[in-house]
Amino acid sequence: MTNTGNTPPIWFITGASSGIGRELAVQALAAGEAVVAVARRTEALGELGEHERLLVVEADVRNEAAVAKAVEQGVARFGRIDIVANLAGYGLFGAVEEAADGQARAIFDTNVFGVLNVLRATLPVLRGQRSGRILQGSSYYGQTADPGVGLLAATKYAVEGLSDALAAEVAPLGIHVTLVEPGLTATPFLSNLDTATAIHADYDQTVRVLQQAIQALPTTAFSGVDRVAAGIRTAVADDNPPRRLALGIAGADSMRTALAARLAELDKWATVTNLVDAELSAHNG
Ligand SMILES: NC(=O)c1ccc[n+]([C@@H]2O[C@H](COP(=O)([O-])OP(=O)(O)OC[C@H]3O[C@@H](n4cnc5c(N)ncnc54)[C@H](OP(=O)(O)O)[C@@H]3O)[C@@H](O)[C@H]2O)c1
């Protein structure tokens, strides 16, 4: 797939103890591939069973030294890393104004600075190989946002921006970057959410309404985690992996609506946009 020979790929997966990361580990092992599974709660990985192709490493992605050690151990065991799945992360629900400073900083520590720790530790390996694939855990909230998810979306937008730049930086080195953008997926994500204290009734009509709507969603509103992982596997195995991979119809529709509105607004305000350079174009003309 991504390595030079025909040997099965070696995965380095964060967030491997639960949800999408865990399912990716399960599917990779079932396909005869090797996995470095990284999580804080490594006991949850015991259920994956004993595999000579599985290395479980305990690391908090916020701890740069621990992440570097996990990469070192992975390379010592398997000799290389072909696919980095940067999936550790969690959500924060609450109005932008209501999220406490500590909550806002904490979610960036895991969802953004944790991702950066993994990139800094794995990129030297991938660059050395002149090959590799990086899966960045984003969301449909990496391209749009609803009331109550401002801080979560802020971390995903940050990951999207840095990944666009990174993709261009590492493309000449044989490394592909794919932003994984799931819609609502049936994982423990919602039960692992941090929640801001509701302070202002002014946000009942937006934030609380959306929170109640999410809590009332039927299970059918969530994509199956097995299919989400299977979709990720299809994309990462492609010769030309996508920059962005939407997973699930509802999330993709939300992104489509947001992108169309953004383009329409760019066009609607084009006169004002272009007037800024009117003198320049008159001069050049
Ligand atoms: N489920 C959805 O609806 C959905 C939708 C869009 C995007 N996503 C994204 O998909 C990714 C995976 O989410 P999920 O749905 O699989 O959620 P999940 O089941 O809650 O899994 C999250 C994983 O992140 C790990 N994690 C959290 N903080 C960590 C830290 N500081 N250090 C190391 N590991 C940490 C957790 O492991 P430990 O607690 O053991 O460390 C867990 O394995 C996230 O980036 C999420 O934003 C999910």
From TrEMBL:
Gene3D superfamilies, sorted: NAD(P)-binding Rossmann-like Domain
Keywords, ordered alphabetically: Oxidoreductase
Stated name of the protein: Short-chain dehydrogenase/reductase
UniProt-listed InterPro entries: NAD(P)-bd_dom_sf, SDR_fam, SDR_oxidoreductase
Stated family: Belongs to the short-chain dehydrogenases/reductases (SDR) family.
Family annotation (SUPFAM superfamilies): NAD(P)-binding Rossmann-fold domains (SSF51735)
